[in-house]
Write a structure and sequence with these properties.
The chain has two helices and nine strands, in the order H-E-E-E-E-E-E-E-E-E-H. The radius of gyration is 19 Å and the shape is elongated. It has a seven-stranded antiparallel β-sheet with strand order 4-3-2-1-9-8-5. It has a two-stranded antiparallel ribbon with strand order 6-7. The chain has a domain at 50-156: Pleckstrin-homology domain (PH domain)/Phosphotyrosine-binding domain (PTB) (PH-domain like), CATH 2.30.29.30. Strand 2 and strand 3 form a beta hairpin. With 168 residues, it is α+β, with helices and mostly antiparallel strands.
């Protein structure tokens, strides 16, 4: 009888934790409902000048590395291909909607060690693009399979490498 009671208690605790996470996710979505819609990807894009594979880590409100944007499926991590095209930056995510950052919206590029709850051991583990949409600044993070290409991305975007303070 004691084992059954302990198992039921563990299941109830687990269910309460799952409910709390779901409730927090929904609350954040309601709070962020007023954010401007993300730009639509153009029907056709020019030839990419840079292309790399990796993981789309997430998009946050700029300046707050843990404030993940969770409207729609923007908050979902996914395998992705990051492409620099003449029109901007395209993030083609596997199993999620693509993200497009128009060239005129890009404000800065840097390498960093953390974004959207993802923390890397290396100071240069993530490529972070800061961009503006209807007056609101966002940081979009990408962890490339080959981090050696980050310097090429920073040079192509005309930015110097900037590391922010430690996130750990």
């Amino acid at each position: 009888m004691t084992r059954v009671l302990l198992v039921l208690l563990c299941v109830a605790f687990f269910a309460l934790c799952v409910y709390g996470m779901w409730h927090g996710w929904k609350r954040r979505q309601r709070k962020q409902a007023g954010l401007p819609p993300f730009p639509a990807r153009p029907e056709t894009l020019g030839a990419p000048t840079l292309c790399t594979t990796g993981v789309y880590v997430g998009t946050t409100n700029a300046g707050n590395w843990q404030d993940r944007v969770q409207v729609g499926d923007i908050g979902h991590r996914a395998e992705a291909t990051l492409s620099l095209v003449p029109e901007g930056v395209a993030v083609d995510r596997v199993g999620a909607t693509p993200i497009f950052i128009p060239a005129g919206s890009l404000r800065a590029a840097r390498t960093d060690r953390g974004l959207a709850g993802k923390v890397m051991f290396s100071e240069e583990g993530l490529l972070v693009l800061q961009w503006e949409n209807e007056g609101h600044l966002f940081d979009t993070g990408f962890r490339g399979d080959d981090k050696d290409v980050y310097d090429e991305w920073l040079a192509a975007l005309g930015q110097k490498q900037i590391n922010t303070e430690d996130k750990a």
